[in-house]
Amino acid sequence: MEIVEYAKRGSIEVIVGPMYAGKSEELIRRVNRAKIADLVVLAFKPSIDDRYKKDMITTHSGKELECYVVKDTSEIKKYIEEREFDVLAIDEVQFFGDEIVDICEKAAENGKRVIVSGLDMDFRGEPFGVTPYLMAIAEHVTKLTAICKVCKIPATRTQRLVNDKPAKYTDPVILVGAKESYEARCRQCHIINKN
Looking at the annotation, which residues are catalytic? Predict the structure, then answer.
């Protein structure tokens, strides 16, 4: 069944993969198609994601989508209670707490199309935040790959680097960054520094 068929009755779509896989780009593509069909979209990103423009979901390649920047899920809840919409889009979903799952489920139950994107694994190669749970309850999951910076095969993991060396396993899970801090890696080239 096509994604559009699910969306007619309310659904959750999850776009995941490592950094540089094109998750935000795919979210923007789906939202733009919805807008062409005159659907009303509410798009959000967490305020912690301050890498590019403030009020935009921005890809590493420079594509942009206007959005609301929120500190937490209570702000998203307020927006969706006050506005009519057809599509709820959330970028960097891994940075939100467990409450985001409830928000997504309620929106889908109310006939809304929910599209979220985010990392499914942290830099350690372990499940990241709420994303795996959202994948489990979604009608449609798209797992994208990047290209391994080391061996150039499909990459499913994100390597965090500190001074060009793999980060320590005990480092904090959340560190917002881009090319200066992270690389896409395949399973074999992904290094977990447990020292």
Answer: 92
pLDDT digits (tens, 9 = 90+) for 19-34: 999 999 999 999 999 9
Tens-place pLDDT, residues 70-88: 999 999 999 999 999 999 9
Give me the residue label for tokens 């499940």. Answer: 127
Q: What pTM was computed for the model?
A: 0.91
Which two tokens mark 140?
């449609």
Q: Which CATH architecture has domain 3-145?
A: 3-Layer(aba) Sandwich (3.40)
